Amino acid sequence: MSDHTDIQPPIQTAGACDEPDCMQTLRDLDVFLDDEITPETRTSIRHHLDGCPDCEHAFDFHAELKSVIQKKCLDEEMPADLLTRIEQCFDTDLDGDGAVG
Ligand SMILES: [Zn+2]
Predict the structure, then answer these.
(1) pLDDT over 90 percentage in the chain
(2) Distance from the CA of 62 to the center of ligand 1, in angstroms?
(3) Residue 70 domain-assigned?
(4) CB-proximal residues (5 Å) to ion ligand 1
(5) Which end of the chain is more exposed for a tag (fewer CB within 10 A), N or C?
(6) pLDDT class for 6, splitting at 50, 70, 90?
(7) What is the CATH classification number for the domain harbouring 34?
(8) Is the pLDDT score of 77 beyond 70?
């Protein structure tokens, strides 16, 4: 017998963002930013970001970086080799050419 309800702890483990949920959220970031996800996945990512500052910061950084790079690409201000290195660093296709690097 227990009166435990389904209340979640208000704060997740502070510091390292290494929960499976976090890993999945970070993996989904690029897809999320590319608008290629289902509404369900989008909702679940947003929900996770709400309760997880680490992921939220990573998301903000990713989103900002991506928008800057896309702008630079459009303006042809981004040297190709620099873009390649950034893509490899993040293991992410930032310029939308379908390849990392
Ligand atoms: Zn997280």
Answers:
(1) 1
(2) 14
(3) yes
(4) 17, 22, 52, 55
(5) N
(6) low
(7) 1.10.10
(8) yes
